[in-house]
TrEMBL record:
Family: Belongs to the FlgI family.
Record GO biological process: bacterial-type flagellum-dependent cell motility
Biological role: Assembles around the rod to form the L-ring and probably protects the motor/basal body from shearing forces during rotation.
Protein's name according to its UniProt entry: Flagellar P-ring protein
Principal location: other
GO cellular component labels: bacterial-type flagellum basal body, distal rod, P ring; outer membrane-bounded periplasmic space
Amino acid sequence: MRPQKIYETRSSFIKRTATGLLAAACLLLASAGSSEAQTRIKDIVDFEGVRENMLVGYGLVVGLNGTGDSLDSAIFTRESLVGMLERLGVNARDDDLDTDNVAAVMVTATLPPFAKQGSRIDVSISAIGDAEDLLGGTLLVTPLIGADGEVYAVGQGSVATGAISAAGEGETIVQGVPTSGRIANGAIIEREIDFSMQQMETVTIALKNPDFTTARRISQAINAFVGLPVAQVRDLASVRMLVPENYRGNAVALITDVEQLRVTPDIPAKVVINETTGIIVMGENVRISTVAIAQGNLTIRITETPQVSQPQPFAQTGETVTVPRTQIEIDQDEDKQLSVLSQSVTLQELVDGLNALGIGPRDLISILQAIKAAGALQAEIEVL
């Protein structure tokens, strides 16, 4: 029996091809739109072991142009200078030291993760005495220690302040902070922190903004990528991930692949208020129940317009006196009425409703706090 041949007309082929291309285009647009709204896991988490360490040290800055510490008031600077000179073979105990070209400083630095011995890091310099300016000074050899008391780096170099300080008899100009500076690549790493990621069997992922929903979405994205339930949410701030068999001995490759996965972080409903600057920042999920708001101020204006009263020309009696004239006006904003702020669906509608009240940021802060006290603001208020 001969097999039956199936023929397809040209029009049906074109129709089927166009339908497939249209479906592929829709799928591409959908994936592109969703990727724009998502964030890489790399940008919202920290991985176990990949962390920085703080270093601190005490040192001396020399070579200042008369703007250093006063040795009479800064005793620690004097003792440090004498100790340094004795270590160099100079006996300065019996001499009356009188110099203002030396300043005691605190040296701080950040040891990056997996920093290798011999590499360089930046250091920050801050005066702790009564020095006026560190411009042109040089930091002498300063050990930088970690929280465990061990020396991890040694700093030395010329201090760059980036500040300007000029004084005259009638005016003083100071731009920036002349008592703090920075030395680019001013410290050499002397000790490494031992930490190997090759033999890790589990990896802990810490969320920068803890949230249960975001943690669950991260674990789901990892499990979908690996194809196995290797990621599990421990709490709102961490996800524990097992290293699968195909990544054993190569945890770095697993972290590299995982941090490129994209998820949509869940943003809590929060209103952040900075009363000092009047800045208000509201999250996307902030909602307000239907409320009626009336905003008004009591303004009292007192105007003094004194007048001079004097007798008629050639009058035999009377004298010239100043007669007070006071005008008091009270504005109670009686034209301001209640405004209904309807329940908002989007952040834009909420902003439009608040702007419709015609108030400034300062009054808006008080209104938001009052709405929260009334129980109509479905968000958390954080005051900076």
